[in-house]
Specification:
- Helix content is about 50%, strand content about 20%.
- It is an alpha+beta fold.
- The protein has a five-stranded mixed sheet with strand order 7-8-6-9-11, with helices on both faces. It has a four-stranded antiparallel sheet with strand order 1-3-2-4.
- It is globular, with a radius of gyration of 21 Å.
Length: about 280
């Protein structure tokens, strides 16, 4: 059975479609499908009727003359930009009735987190990149509740923190997980949603592991033994170090290295739960 991707289905209808990763020259309208797929179509080839039909299943990207916005959009949509310091990515799905509500919402965000890069991807999708200063997430949720009340904007939020890493890879993961974040004014750790995603019924085992391929390949025998010992001792670092005949500082160093390799900190509950599931899937391959 051949399973067509979203891009394959679009190409069967619009042969001139291009993927965002391609070096497309010319004047294109860019869209994002519900599963996060980004594609472009030549403006001159689309009728108004075709544009309307497309917007039923995809959202046009916000085009801007702001070079900084364009730069960050490109960084999110490619896998070539690597951040070499700790950062956090927050992906917001927005729901509102009045068009001016988006502008009010963005003004509040800029006031609340002036150090962050706030990137408008589509009318209903905003990405936030924090590096030098991370806001308190409980305060962030308070702001979202106030905005929902005052500006009639509701936001579903997914976030990930990383010691360093490729921004685009994390962005693509968030796009796949966005449908799992259903409660408004709540910030979901991506690792929590990814755990539930991996438990979903997918076409193939490989499809289930697609989002965690990079993590999956780092889990060699040594790392798996380390994680299993940590799980067996309820994430207690001191007890785990004793069981492994290892100094606590040495264990913490190894866990720090694992965090840098995978992006998940086994000392944190949601990350540890996800890593335990990945180890289980790793063994059942």
């Amino acid at each position: 059975m051949i399973v067509l991707t979203t891009y394959d289905r679009i190409k069967s209808i619009f042969p001139t479609v291009v993927h965002r990763s391609e070096d497309a020259s010319g004047d294109y309208i860019w869209y994002q499908a519900h599963d996060g797929t980004v594609f472009g179509l030549p403006k001159m080839e689309l009728s108004e009727r075709e544009r309307q039909l497309l917007e039923w299943s995809a959202t046009p990207f916000v085009t801007t003359r702001d070079p900084r916005q364009e730069k960050w959009q490109d960084r999110l949509l490619t896998d070539s930009y690597r951040i070499t310091q700790p950062f956090r990515l927050l992906s917001l799905s927005l729901h509102y009735q009045e068009p001016e509500s988006l502008e009010q919402f963005l003004e509040i965000l800029h006031d609340f987190m002036p150090e962050a890069e706030i990137v408008v991807m589509t009318r209903h999708h905003v990405e936030i990149i924090e590096m030098n200063q991370l806001v308190d997430l409980s305060e962030f949720e308070d702001v979202l509740r106030a905005v929902a009340s005052d500006c009639y904007v509701e936001a579903h939020v997914i976030y990930s923190e990383r010691p360093l890493g490729v921004l685009g890879t994390l962005y693509q993961q968030h796009q796949t997980l966005r449908p799992f974040a259903r409660l408004s004014t709540k910030a979901y750790p991506a690792s929590q949603l990814l755990y539930h995603y991996l438990l979903e019924d997918h076409e193939t085992f490989a499809e289930r592991l697609q989002l965690i391929e990079a993590v999956y390949t780092t889990l060699d025998k040594t790392n798996i033994e380390l994680l299993e010992a940590l799980f067996a001792h309820s994430l207690n670092v001191s007890h785990t170090a004793k069981a492994l005949f290892m100094h606590r500082n040495t264990l913490n160093y190894r866990l720090d290295r694992l965090y840098e390799l995978t992006g998940y900190d086994a000392r944190q509950f949601y990350d540890a739960s996800l890593l335990q599931l990945i180890v289980t899937l790793h063994k059942s391959e």
